[in-house]
Amino acid sequence: MQTYLPIAEVSVNAFLLLGLGGLVGILSGMFGVGGGFLITPLLFFIGIPPAVAVATGANQIVASSFSAVLAHFRRRTVDLAMGSVLLTGGLVGSGLGVFVFNYLKSLGQVDLLVRLCYVIFLGVVGALMFVESLNALRKARKAQVGARPPRRPRTLVHALPFKMRFRTSGQYMSVIPPLMIGLAVGVLAAIMGVGGGFIMVPAMIYLLGMPTKVVVGTSLFQIIFVTAFTTMLHATTNQTVDIVLAVYLILGGVIGAQIGTQIGLKLKAEQLRVLLAALVLAVCGKLALELLIQPAELYNLTELGRH
């Protein structure tokens, strides 16, 4: 069943769009990521223009993240204090990111920027996460039964000023690192159409020392508001949000998020991180190949006429 997307100006199979939304929803519930790092490249692959994919992908992330975070609220695995600090930085970052996006769009360079950002960030984060997760799995197998886990060493995060207690995470630390992480994720959300979970989840685990189960729900809480704000900015400044495309992705995403949450609870934290890292690297590899391989059409007359 073909559906015409008025803003993207292409026809796409409706069941394919529902399937993509469902897949990303499952990932959202399992890993605490909005899924934008996957949905946006997948939209590229089926012929959606990058500017529309970025703005509309953010729309879908709001729905799947909201569906998943409800399940985490019921299990009390959301640190609202930490989520609020991350959100403050995220809103500022998303405003800055939309400004950069609009400037590059006026120069005609936004498509290349989005793809390059994906390859660089997914490659670096995926590789680091994969290596660390494999090491964690090896240590977990070697650990003696009943042995006490080693205490985390104090880091710069604990030495900075403006400290605050985050009870759900069991942390007492400066608000500066969470603010900076939120700011970076907000910029990425606007430029890449992502929730930023693939950056935020590793940062919260390794830099802030938060428990993995709390990280997932807290990350989703922050993602909802940042991506909603980003979507609103793109809709008002760029008019690149395709409502028809968003509805199909949202329907699939809401259902998939509930399934993903149940799957995530049955897997160990180390296993979740290995799976997420492998997925990030796979998407990075596909995008890198598309940048390197010569396209079938070397010139785009539509774009030439616009600029």
From TrEMBL:
Q: Keywords of this protein's UniProt record, alphabetized?
A: Cell membrane, Membrane, Transmembrane, Transmembrane helix
For this protein, the parts annotated as crossing the membrane are 12-39, 80-100, 112-131, 175-208, 214-233, 245-265
Q: Keyword check for Cytoplasm, yes or no.
A: no
Instruction: List the InterPro entries.
Output: TM_pro_TauE-like, TSUP/Inactive_protease-like
Q: How does it sit in the membrane?
A: Multi-pass membrane protein
**The UniProt record lists the keyword Magnesium:** no
Give a GO cellular-component term. Answer: plasma membrane
Question: Which locations, inside or outside the cell, does it occupy?
Answer: Cell membrane; Membrane
Specify where it is mainly localized: membrane
**Family of this protein:** Belongs to the 4-toluene sulfonate uptake permease (TSUP) (TC 2.A.102) family.
Name assigned to this protein = Probable membrane transporter protein
* Originating organism: Antarcticimicrobium sediminis
